[in-house]
Structure formats: structure tokens, C-alpha cells
Design goal:
alpha/beta, 8-stranded mixed β-sheet
């Protein structure tokens, strides 16, 4: 059973989008995909088999105030406009293929963080509907620039806070051979979040979430060690950028988006035969 583990990273996720588009174009699909934040937001297009969709709509709406920006944050509480980005775009402007998503037997799991407990919530999404879109939104809702998403009896934000690289979870679910796509280069180590004073203030009602944010760098760096050991043992195949991805978390530059996506496509092509061997054997 083959798993595909996609970490987040906001617009760095377009690197991942390039890789999974190459996989789709070559009819290479895992048995399950577990995505975090941008890994879920862009990875859902693999279950709906829509190569090219993630880069297409991000470039189209890069400078559209309805989609994202400070105006959206000030008027709605979300930097990425919840209604426009997660409900209007997939229905009106770049149609999300709900039927294809529903027919595809590949398991799709979005990772979120429960702000009350500070613990990860793993939601398997078998059907694409408005609720599924909101689970994906919750997975990608970055603290400070997103409202808490209340769904399924949980209060949720960014899955990367509690489980940034869910390789261990994929293995626990029975997927013993995993492809892991990272959005940071070899040797990267996460530092303590410099915005913790703001995080503590904004999330003061949720001390477990503040604690998770305060220790996120420790969790993340331990997960990198776990991935490295799994890679050494032959349990996973890791694809990562060769260098730091040149884009900000909330970039509005379509040329930069294309550049990052092309980096992902290049990596996907470079690793194509290894991916094919990993999945087919």
C-alpha cells in the first residue's frame, strides 16, 4: 500500500503541485494521500485528477482582491477569502470536478489542528462537497491571518502546527511505502517562531494551541529526523527542492508562482522513474 505525504508551506506548495501534476500526467497514483495545509489544498486536485488546476487558479487570482489580501483579512478575518477562494472559485471560475473526486478510490486525508487541544485531527474526505471544502480550508488556515474554522465538533486551524510531515500517521494507517514531498531543502531546520508574542495574544483563549505553536519547531525538526531514518531504512522515498524555494507565504506574484511550480515539475521529471518504480513495484 503506497502513501503520498505532502507537507504544507503556503505558496511553497506550488512546488508540490508541480510534482503531483507530473505524476498525474504519467498516471502514477498512490493508494492514499495525506496532505497538510497547502499539501491538502493543492493535493485534493490529485483525487479529482485535475493536473494544472492549482497553478492555473493561483496565477489567475494572484492580484484579485476578492481572492486574497489585506482587504480580505480586514473585512472577513481571512487573508485568503473563505467564501470566494473555497466556494466560489471551485464552482464558478475553475471548476473542481466533484464527480471525479468521488469516483477515485484513492484515500484523501486532510490534517488540521484542534485549537482547543493543540492536537492533530485527521479527516478522511471521500466526497467533495461544501463541508469537504471547509475541511481543506481549515487545514490551510494559518494562525494570525485566518479565522478559526468550526466544523465536525472541532475548532480548527493549520494542520502544520501539530503534524507538519505526517509520515508516521500514514504508516499507522497501513501505508508502509510512502513518497514524502517536502518544501524545504536538505539541511533545513525550523527555528522558533518569532511571532510568538502575537500568537499568544491572538490565541490567548486557547493555551494548548499556543503551546503547540511555541514547540512547533521542535516537533518539525524531530519529524525531519523521522523522515531521514525512514528514508535510510527504505520505508519512504523523499522528494525535496534542491534549494530554498524563492517565494513568500502570501505572494501575489504570478511569475514567482510559475517559477516555483516549474521547480516542482523539474523535480517530478527528475524523480519520475524512481516514483514509477516505487508505485508499480
Amino acid at each position: 500500500m503506497i502513501g503520498l505525504v505532502l507537507e504544507g508551506g503556503a505558496m511553497r506548495g506550488l512546488f508540490t503541485a508541480g510534482i503531483i501534476d507530473v505524476m498525474m500526467e504519467n498516471n502514477l497514483y498512490p493508494d492514499a494521500l495525506i496532505g497538510v495545509s497547502a499539501g491538502a489544498a493543492f493535493g485534493c486536485n490529485m483525487k479529482s485528477r485535475q493536473a494544472g488546476r492549482a497553478i492555473r487558479y493561483n496565477k489567475r487570482f494572484a492580484r484579485d482582491a476578492r481572492y486574497s489580501g489585506w482587504r480580505s483579512l480586514l473585512t472577513t478575518g481571512d487573508y485568503f477569502n473563505a467564501q470566494f477562494a473555497y466556494h466560489i472559485v471551485p464552482h464558478q471560475y475553475d471548476i473542481f470536478d466533484n464527480d471525479a473526486f468521488n469516483r477515485n478510490p484513492m484515500k484523501f486525508i486532510a490534517v488540521c489542528t484542534d485549537v482547543t487541544t493543540g492536537q492533530p485531527v485527521y479527516k478522511q474526505l471521500d466526497r467533495a462537497d461544501e463541508e469537504a471544502y471547509d475541511w481543506i480550508r481549515a487545514s490551510a488556515s494559518m494562525p494570525l491571518v485566518s479565522r478559526i474554522v468550526e466544523i465536525g465538533g472541532h475548532k480548527l486551524l493549520d494542520g502544520g502546527v501539530s503534524d507538519s510531515i505526517p509520515l508516521q500517521k500514514s504508516e499507522e494507517l497501513g501505508y508502509q511505502r510512502n513518497i514524502v514531498v517536502l518544501t524545504q531543502p536538505q539541511g533545513y531546520q525550523k527555528a522558533h517562531n518569532a511571532l510568538m508574542p502575537l500568537m499568544r495574544l491572538a490565541l490567548r483563549k486557547y493555551p494548548k494551541m499556543v503551546e503547540a505553536l511555541d514547540h512547533r519547531h521542535i516537533m518539525y525538526n524531530r519529524q525531519l529526523e523521522y523522515v531521514a531514518e525512514a528514508e535510510h531504512q527504505g520505508r519512504c522515498y523523499v522528494i525535496r527542492p534542491a534549494e530554498k524555494i524563492p517565494i513568500g507565504h502570501t505572494s501575489h506574484n504570478a511569475a514567482d508562482m510559475q517559477r516555483v511550480y516549474d521547480m516542482g515539475r523539474q523535480a517530478g521529471l527528475q524523480h519520475l522513474e524512481a516514483i514509477r518504480t516505487w508505485i508499480e513495484h
